[in-house]
Write a structure and sequence with these properties.
Cytochrome p450; two-stranded antiparallel sheet; 16 helices; 50% helix
Length: 428
């Protein structure tokens, strides 16, 4: 990661934001999604799809909102979240033989700590780590954590009062506390851990949308703080291994990767879990009959989560890079080119789903949801995010069946990737 002063970082972020804003004036739907202003993202997804299976955006990326092309791109081993430059040998003089021009600025991936949280891992590393994690946090393995996760949700509910905010008072504390227990972070570090998770909110969005300087500062500080916390925890587990996830990671990989994977689970896992739970609850409360159905039959939580992953996935854009020349949807894609999958729009492709704009948990679900396609870093979080959201729905339906919305749902600015809810008032 490029080290720079705060003023240098601010200048680079402003430059990126300025470019994104200018490109967004060219009537390019993907550029408008990246700009993440007040445009309707669902309409922009439709416009992307109308451009064809794969179109070249003025934001200098190939973009698709067609489900078939999206599936092909996400599963293509020649496309990776890891940029080819990350594996290129460094120049001996460290600068490629010349000084950068004043107008040249580093990419967001070069100035923000995505690599610290395993977000730039290649497919081979993701698959290797997935095999290591599956016995620990796969769908079957997580069942034993149900009581602990339920307690975490009830703790959040008990502290929330009668007019809480779904995100700040319930979903975020629940998600952070549940992941903390899963990772074996001590009780005395609960507040520290939760604060670091809050501080890193927006790290996924920053992979595509240039953040505010304060946001960049907060997430960098949070990543550094979480790195320190896990360095301490790893040292303790190395001296006294136990029957826990961190000890198992240490036994299966080297310490830097173990720490990076723990940070992915903590910072990105809790963010996606909280976002998915918020969107699922919001969708149900907008449709009282569906909320009542869940309260009468908590087993419907699984179907609700699967439909939310289609209708409002917590990962709405996935940027990939071509590791070599390839062809996608009949189009030649050069090595080094960016290919962006508009996941939410692709999951609303009418060629695949009837009435795609209708939230219907009873619809037949088939295959893996695009947001968690295997071989990508976020695929390591699939079972955890689902399990947390399902647990949260079941406990809310059982303990707070009379809950109702208390105001409009607001979303985070510059949140083109997650579309994260930041405010959702409730009445309990």
């Amino acid at each position: 990661m490029v080290t720079m002063t705060e003023s240098e970082l601010g200048r680079v972020l402003l430059t990126h934001r300025g470019v994104q804003w200018i490109i967004g004036t060219k009537d390019d739907p993907y550029a408008l999604l990246v700009r993440a202003a007040d445009d309707d993202p669902h309409r922009l997804g439709e416009l992307i799809r109308e451009r064809g299976p794969l179109y070249w955006s003025s934001a200098e990326a190939w973009v698709t909102a067609h489900h078939g092309t999206a599936t092909a791109a996400l599963g293509d081993p020649r496309l990776s979240v890891r940029h080819p430059d990350a594996d290129a040998p460094a120049a001996e003089d460290g600068g490629g033989g010349r000084e950068p021009m004043p107008w040249e600025v580093p990419a967001l991936r070069e100035i923000l700590p995505f690599d610290e949280v395993f977000l730039t891992a290649g497919r081979a590393d993701c698959e290797r780590v997935r095999e290591l994690l599956d016995p620990l946090i796969g769908a079957k393995a997580l069942e034993r954590w149900a009581p602990a996760f339920e307690r975490a949700l009830r703790r959040a509910l008990a502290a929330a009062g009668t007019g809480p905010d779904l995100r700040a008072d319930i979903a975020e504390p629940f998600a952070a506390d549940a992941v903390r227990e899963l990772l074996g972070v001590p009780e005395e570090d609960r507040d520290r851990f939760a604060a670091l998770c809050r501080g890193a909110a927006g790290i996924l969005d920053a992979t595509v949308c240039s953040p505010h300087l304060r946001t960049a500062h907060d997430l960098t500080t949070a990543v550094e703080g979480m790195r320190s916390l896990f360095t301490e925890l790893l040292a303790r587990r190395r001296e006294q291994p136990g029957d826990d996830l961190v000890s198992a990671l240490l036994a299966g990989t080297h310490e830097d990767e173990a720490r990076s994977v723990c940070m992915l689970l903590a910072l990105v896992g809790s963010e996606l879990s909280a976002t998915l739970l918020c969107d699922a609850v919001a969708a149900l409360l907008d449709r009282p009959a569906l909320w009542r159905a869940l309260c009468e039959d908590p087993a419907l939580a699984h179907a609700v989560v699967e439909e939310t992953l289609r209708y409002a996935p917590p990962l709405r854009l996935v940027p990939l890079y071509a590791r070599e020349d390839l062809e996608l949807a009949g189009t030649a894609v050069a090595a080094g080119s960016q290919v962006v999958v508009a996941v939410e729009a692709a999951e609303r492709d009418p060629a695949v789903h009837a009435d795609p704009s209708v939230f219907d948990p009873a619809r037949k679900q088939s295959g893996e949801r695009l947001a968690f396609t295997g071989g990508l870093p976020t695929s390591l979080l699939a079972a955890l995010v689902r399990f947390q959201a399902e647990t949260g729905l079941r406990v809310l339906a059982a303990d707070a069946p009379e809950v109702r919305g208390g105001g409009p749902v607001l979303r985070r600015l510059r949140s083109g990737v997650t579309g994260a809810v930041i405010e959702a008032p409730l009445v309990l």
